[in-house]
Amino acid sequence: MEQAWQPQPQGVITEDYQCNLALLQKAARARESEDVQIHEFLLLGHPAALIYIDGMVNSEQLQQFLLEPALHAPALPENTDLAEHLMQAVLPLGSVSQVFHLSPLLTRIFSGDAALICDTMNGALAADLKGFVRRIPGKPVNETVVVGPHEGFNESLRDNVVLIRRLMRTPALISEAMTVGNKIPARICLLYLDGIARQENVEEIRRRIRGCNVDYVSSLGMLEQLIEDKPWSLLPQAASTERPDRAVSFLSEGQIIILMENAPRALALPMGFLHLYHAPDDTNMRWQYGTFLRLLRMAGMLIALLLPALFVALSMFHPEGMSLSLLTSVLETQARVPLSLFSSMLLVLLIFSLINEAGVRVPGAMGGSLSIVSGLILGQAAVEADLFSPLVIIIVAVSGLGSYAVPSFSLTLSLRLAQLLLVLASGIGGYLGLTLGLFFLLIRAAGLTSLRSPYFAPNAPKRPSNPDGVVRLPVWRQRLRGGIANPFHMNRTLGRMRAWEKNEEEP
User: Fold this and answer.
1) For position 268, what pLDDT does the model report?
2) Residues whose CB is less than 8 angstroms from the CB of residue 483 and which lie 6 or more positions away in sequence, other chains included
3) What residue spans define the domains of the chain?
4) Which listed residue, of 45, 132, 152, 350, carries a Cα 20 to 30 Å from 447's Cα?
5) Do 264 and 242 touch, CB atoms closer than 8 A?
6) Angle, nearest 10°, between helix axes 157-167 and 244-252?
7) Which residues of the chain have pLDDT under 50?
8) Inter-residue contact 314 to 322 (CB < 8 Å)
9) Distance (Å, rounded) from C-alpha 199 to C-alpha 276?
10) Terminal alpha carbon distance of the chain
């Protein structure tokens, strides 16, 4: 009995029409799938067939640019190849190519192209006539900005490449088409600036993508897990964005962008920790505003990571570190609570994470209302029923606000997991447990790499790079690219970056 799950068949499209038709009917499962359409007709007196997927091609363009010209084709001149005659004199399409093997032809058919086979014609002609429904580019959902463009990627690979091309109009921008997946190939595209990106990074990404030995890659997140350096790490090792302007910023710094069909975002490799720390609109603001917001963001990250663990360590093991009034308040509120401070902190952190997840999964505008109402009602009821200390609720709420200030969703999740680990370490060993836990997390993070590039570069190890890290210097002082760019093209400009006025003295 034939198995339903088979790899793509191998075969050659020859000049034998009946053999080619039978081969395509069997390989495309035309008898089992009602949307696989095969339309037979006569082309220049020879039997021919048009194969396409109903709903994935533009029916008007199929009729206007392929079927009608083929039915009214001029006579074939002597000593002229039929395929060349059709491509040059009959079909008014610029995206027609000749395919000689069955596997790539099936891939193109099931991607929305139409295929034409004809008797005495060697190979098949594949025309790009895609017409399936797709979402137009809209506002980014997760990366909203106050200052900057409001345009995001959609699920069409070609549209996403065009969005980047429109912002970066240079022949130095290289786009390479690739596929990943053994049985169901998924189309992806690598984009990089020739000369700016390190060639060894480009070759390494190619090697890792070709080495993905899986049946099907369903999403860009799955591809990220297959090509990252350390799959057991909490921290993400690829920067993700749904904004074309941020993808262009990554390209100009020497990074490589990966786009994928049906993925409304892009991956950037290699990356460092600072790429997760920066917000999309930092560059669009004056440097004073951007620096202030980045320092505020860093404070929020530290609060989210350390505040609950510090409170547990102080209250349980080192009460002498608190003032008398604060210690009295902690002891009075804790005396009415049946749970220990350590158990209360862990439980409230888990409830807070549950409320956040429920708010994300609830459809529409109910999500934000659910988070607010659940937090208010549950928090107030728990305090009035003496289930949790009010200080625990306050500490968890402040740490939650700190995590919301982090621009990267992946970094937010890694901070929450690290937060729980540090609370466990503090509840077991106090300051010593917190110090050892934090030291272990820092050692693990310091050993991370992204596409073999150090995670905390250009600060550790120290490398020449653009002065746009924890703080942001003025744009006209940023003469260098990122530390991961090609070292021979680090300088952005050879002269002054700012057009000074005549009466203004340069500092």
Assistant:
1) 94
2) 272, 457, 458, 463, 464, 465, 466
3) 17-127, 157-271, 287-450
4) 350
5) yes
6) 60
7) 1-8, 503-507
8) yes
9) 24
10) 81
